[in-house]
Amino acid sequence: MERNKIDVEAFVYSKRHILTTGAVLLLLAVPYSGFSQYIIRIMIMVGLYIILALGLNVLTGYTGLVSLGHAGFFAIGAYTAAILMLKLNMNFLLAAVISMTAAGIAGLLIGLPTLRLTGTYLSIVTLGFGEIVRMAAMNFESVTNGTLGLRNIPRPVFFGYQLTLANGGLYYLMLALLAAVTLACLAIKNSKLGRALRAIKTNELAASMMGIYTPGCKLAAFVISAVITGLAGAYYSSLVSYIDPNSFTFDISILILSIVILGGMGTVRGMYLGALILIVFPEIARPLMEWRFVVYGVVLIVMMRFKPQGVLGWRSSIPYRIPDEKNA
Amino acid sequence: MLFQQALNGLALGMAYSLIALGYSLVFGILRLVNFSHGAVYAFGAHIVIFLVGFNFGLAPAILFGVVLTGLLGILIDKLALSPLRKKRSPAISSLITTIGISYIIQNLLMMGFGSEKKPFPELFGNKLLSVAGAQVGTMQLVMLAVSILLLLSLTILVRFTKLGLAMRAVEQSEAVSGLMGINTNFIIGVTFFLSGAFAAIASVLISGCYQIVYPTMGFMVGLKAFTAAVLGGIGSFHGAIAGGLAIGITEALAATWFGSAYRDSVAFIILILVLLVRPAGLFGKKGIEKV
Amino acid sequence: MVAYLEAKNITIRFGGLTAIDNLSFKVERGQAVSIIGPNGAGKTTIFNALTGIYRLNEGSIHFDGKRIDGLAPWKIVSAGIARTFQNIRLFSDMRVIENVLVGTHIQMDYGFFDELFRTKRFKRLEDEKTRFAARLLREVGLEKRIHDYADNLPYGEQRKLEMVRAAATGAQLLLLDEPAAGMNPKESEELRQFILQLKDRGFTILLIEHDMNMVMNLSDYIYVVDSGRLIAEGRPHEIQGSSKVAAVYLGEGGAEEWAC
Fold first, then answer.
1. Which residues of A touch B92 (CB under 8 A)?
2. pLDDT tens-digit series, residues A101-130
3. Sequence spans of domains, chain B
4. What pLDDT shows up at residue C250?
5. Helices in chain C by DSSP H: which ranges?
6. A125 to chain B: which residues are within 8 Å by CB?
7. Domains and their CATH numbers in chain C
8. Out of A9, B126, B135, B249, which could bridge B9 as a Cys pair, Cβ 3.0 to 4.6 Å?
9. Is the CB of A119 less than 8 angstroms away from the CB of B97?
10. What number is the ipTM of this complex?
């Protein structure tokens, strides 16, 4: 069984350029392939949750810090973008950038006090953070309209052209954001910071003995994770045009965590699979809709018990790329 | 006025102590923060309502409910946590597992009982008595009495019985206790049973006081009790009691001075402060990791 | 002449317990110095103090002319001191080469912008350091293991990897904490040769060890510590002949070891 897996991985790896190009072409053709708007909307939602999962993955998968409050960063991104676009008529791109910055600052503020904390304590603080953001959204009515929420959030407008579901604009924007975030996560993973984060996850003391400034790296992970999640929030508010505090509950944080765990903590491919499974399945199995929260909980337990590395989280057997020695 | 508020907080604080003890007991033997404890607490109240609905009679319903909740505690350990220990999984796995359990229990309660608030039967008729110039409800006296009784029983159990000795041994070292002939699995089971049972009793007391029950009630109370445990020093018996009282009284005072909207935030603020300033808590032991 | 590494009258207390009591020692550049003593004597505590994990209650530590006590661990590594651990602390979920690459972290001089946008600088440094890491591993005989995951290595190779990783930081002073623990005589001899090679390459070595054969046949100088205090120091033959030192080891089977 192991041999088969290694062969599959090697095969996919060797054909990866063709496969990726093929997949990208297929994805680009979707709006013209006759899929209904309902299906396209689901695909967009899957894409959104992949981005959310990639964001959480940087903190939890790469660095090993379990966050139970990522809905908080999601909310900050969404509300900031919504308010800027509604009250200041700002264009989407600028609003998104500011939202990402706001989320990043929040990431810094939460990261700083938790630097000395471990495991469960850190998770509980993030849980509290998520709840505080939600309560703030409910109570600062002058800014966020409280429980009534913000409505009529405008769609993104690029060069005078409004992006909607019907014209495929929102879909392509999602693809673009997804590509950008995926590339960024891969770039981080295979670099100095990525290795440092993995080292911190495995053995923080040894990592500091390598000269790694662990507090700085952990903060960087918090900020990067928050920024990605904030970007998803900005897109989300434009996508659904109406947000209220109930869109950003603890349930959402758990859903994102389940995706990360199911797919494979620390991998990028796992986020794609995890989001695909957990977002699509309630749509397919309508009768299970009510049970879906129980399912998320079961996913967490079963994965930890039987396959903690996730479905796609196996150890790679592809040799590490060593550049050839220059002719000495 | 201050005395009045302090008394209110006292009774509530004792109930928090019972729940905080649940956290400390489990942390003491397993070095694990049982995230699902809040959900177990909610389960306790709901199962009692369920049994009462079967015309069980209040006292038997409470008794059965407490026992069943204790059994739930054991089930959680045997089914989900013990296999992870056998596999020597990293701590992150147990944390995520207990999160999953909490989530499942809460949502099953929601599906089974609906998410609206439900009334909890009045326990002792809330007559007001005058004690030293302040007014105390009978329910609060009962809370105090029951909590103190339970705490005393637990102290006697832990200090003076063979079982208690075994529990303290396992807390020191599971491996060595096993070698000494102690059935560590049994002890761990007992600990989870007590943890669940105490949560259920606290649940009945608090629900009897406020008279409402809803599936997510464990979330806030669980967080407050966790804060109490951390404040007192998680793993410490006295700490859980001291922490519970502190949280209860501070909460009551804050509610009077700042309004009841901020009642819930008090515990959270205390938690952040404790974790920032002195994570070991008041009575906590500082574990020195061998480098 | 100022010594390369010097600890002056250091004292470390944990609550009521004095772990290190007014200890002084020094290491000259290029030397291999050993710290020996019974278990619990405080040897690892010394290492922890040198690397910034513990703070000194009294005294000072100087390295390469600068004072380093009180500095954060990562600053001390940047200054040129790296260590291995008594119970191996490899990054078990990472490959052998990745472990060494983590060691090169402070040598990889590019920023976040470079890694995000894959600049020329990033590519150049990554390639350079990866080749460097592979070369190091080849030189110590771990070539076949380059792509393996660290926790799949046999014990002896894990210890070697830990040392390679420490060397990759560019540190000039290596603190080795019981590297021969759990090794059979053949493995210990290989390790002894390996450490001599490190010394030949210019590393300065400070070693904690119980294996007397290694200590006597490797060290330029030896410090003997018991209960946090320095009880003897000198060249190997001086320590070998010391009855005071033998007394400290009696009851640990040390008497037999002594008669080498």
1. 64, 66, 119
2. 999 999 999 999 888 887 778 888 898 889
3. 15-216
4. 59
5. 43-50, 73-79, 96-103, 112-117, 120-139, 155-168, 185-200, 212-216, 236-240, 243-249, 254-258
6. 271-272, 275
7. 29-258 (3.40.50.300)
8. B249
9. no
10. 0.87
